Amino acid sequence: MTEAMETPGSETYLAALAGILADVEDAGRVIASGQIAELRVLAAAGRLAEAQGVHSDANVLLHDMALRSISAEVAGTMRMTDRTVQRRIGEARVTIEGFPAAVAAWEAGRIVRGHVSAIVDAGVNLPAEMWAEFEAIAIERCEGQTPNRVRGELEILAHRMHPRSFAERHEKATAGRCVRLVPGRDGMSDLIATLPTVIVEGIHDRLTQQARAIIDTRVERATGSEVVATDARTTDQVRADVFADLLLAGTPALDDTRDTTAGPLGAIRARVQVLVPAATLTGHDDGPCDLTGRSPIDPATARTLARDTRIWERLFHDPTTGVTVSTDSYRVPSGMRRFLQARDQHCRFPGCRVAAIRCEVDHTHDHALGGKTELSNLAHLCQRHHSMKQFTAWRVRQLQGGVLEWTSPLGRTYREDAPTPAVAFTPAPAQPGDPAPF
Predict the structure, then answer these.
(1) CA 130, CA 134: separation in Å to the nearest integer?
(2) What's the whole-number mean pLDDT along residues 21-34?
(3) For the chain, what is the HEC assignment?
(4) Domain extent at residue 247
(5) What's the rounded Cα separation, in Å, for the pair 223 and 226?
(6) C-alpha–C-alpha distance, residues 108 and 29, integer Å
(7) Residue 397's beta-bridge partner residues?
(8) Mean pLDDT lowest among 72-76, 256-260, 374-378
(9) What percent of the chain stands above pLDDT 70?
(10) Per-residue pLDDT for 100 more than 60?
């Protein structure tokens, strides 16, 4: 490799990178075509199996046997197990027959496979007669967004459209909470807990904080002329060890400063960021609330969190556009930071879903170069993308309305719109005797 090739920003380097991107796009189109063709073939296999039982009194059994037989035949060609192929046949039929517009948009290059999966995963929870309506809205939401960015929004949309309230469905779902043990290999197993989302998020957040506290205070010892860390575990490994300590002993064993009361690790509490519509907070609506950057939670849990928290934020939205225009709070931090958290919700690099409360507020135009500390020059970036903005050739400028325009080293631009507000209010005339919203 020549020196010019190794220098980011050189013409040779940029030409090579442009060629790679063009090849990636070409490969993506070929792969998408093949994946869609495979889905259609698998769906056809499912229809063939179903047709075997149409004229039989024992049509259910006949259909099942036919499906098993066809799945085994296809599995031999695909080099998979017949159970896997049978499952994929079912998924293919739901996708091809239940959400044809999403498949057509994928085929046209408007969206990618991840978008289709997100649409199907959220849409199947609705009654089948509502799939087409949901699908049309979902495709528009997906265009210009990455699948992981839009997945949570689609789940909220589906919950809002569902004829049964989210609270009613969540109450039924909580009856299925459980802990499962799945034996693994090499003396390892998976312990899987199915719990309400806000509880799981809190558990993971607390474990993460404790793991980081341990990693930040690692002891190093001198060995000859070298300094060697006494603890070389990764964050995942420390998080798993703390999890085991808490469950087995009730306190983190690695907290060397602990005494009769909880030490620094034991004193760490979880943080979650939840957006609660005013109507839900007052009990006038039982729709889902948004666990920012993740997934919906039930309204009863959101009300409990709002009642018990000492960190209280109100969000005001323009009733016409649904855009957050201001906030207020009992806590001391500046209103500017609160407004940015309400506006951004997560890291503003394209595709990133790190919640705003875990991000850094960045000056789009560097403060050291004259950038002002004002809303039109601030946005949340996670540590990874904040560093990338500082130390690579990626550039960003903030347009009107909080839109970020990122420019890659090749000169390609990616617009990152401010997230769609998780809640929106519709003006309604006040009725006599209605309580004040706050």
Answers:
(1) 6
(2) 94
(3) CCHHHHCCCCHHHHHHHHHHHHHHHHHHHHHHHHHHHHHHHHHHHHHHHHHCCCCCCCHHHHHHHHHHHHHHHHHHHHCCCHHHHHHHHHHHHHHHHHCHHHHHHHHCCCCCHHHHHHHHHHHCCCCHHHHHHHHHHHHHHHCCCCHHHHHHHHHHHHHHHCCCCHHHHHHHHHCCCEEEEEECCCCCEEEEEECCHHHHHHHHHHHHHHHHHHHHCCCEEEECCEEEECCCCCHHHHHHHHHHHHHHHCCCCCCCCCCCCCCCCCCCCCCCCEECCHHHHCCCCCCCEEECCCCEECHHHHHHHHHHCCCCEEEEECCCCCCEEEEEECCCCCHHHHHHHHHHCECCCCCCCCEHHHCEEEECCCHHHCCCCCHHHEEEECHHHHHHHHHCCCEEEECHHHCEEEECCCCCEEEECCCCCCCCCCCCCCCCCCCCCC
(4) 195-270
(5) 5
(6) 10
(7) 405
(8) 256-260
(9) 76
(10) yes
Name the average pLDDT for the chain.
Answer: 80
Q: 388 and 349 in one domain?
A: yes
Segment 197-246, tens digit of pLDDT: 888 888 898 898 888 888 877 766 555 566 556 677 888 998 999 898 88
pLDDT at residue number 329:
38
Examine the pLDDT at 410 and tell me if it is beyond 90.
no
Give me the long-range contacts of 302-311 (CB less than 8 A, separation at least 24).
302/198, 302/274, 302/276, 303/276, 305/198, 305/272, 305/274, 305/276, 306/274, 306/276, 306/281
Q: Same domain, yes or no, for 28 and 164?
A: yes
CA distance 63 to 83: 15
Task: Find residue 289's DSSP bridge partners.
Answer: 297
Count of CB atoms situated within 10 Å of the CB of 366: 12
Beta bridge mates, 326: 316
Q: CB–CB of 266/251 below 8 Å?
A: yes
Q: Are strands 296-297 and 313-317 parallel, antiparallel or unpaired?
A: unpaired
The answer to whether the beta carbons of residues 419 and 359 sit under 8 Å apart is no
430 domain residue, yes or no? no
Structural domains of the chain, count: 3
Last residue of a domain, one of 270, 303, 323: 270
Say if residue 247 is in the same domain as residue 370.
no
- The answer to whether the predicted template modeling score (pTM) of the entire model surpasses 0.70 is no
- Asked if 302 and 274 touch (Cβ cutoff 8 Å), the reply is yes
Nearest 5°: CA angle at 57, between 52 and 62? 35
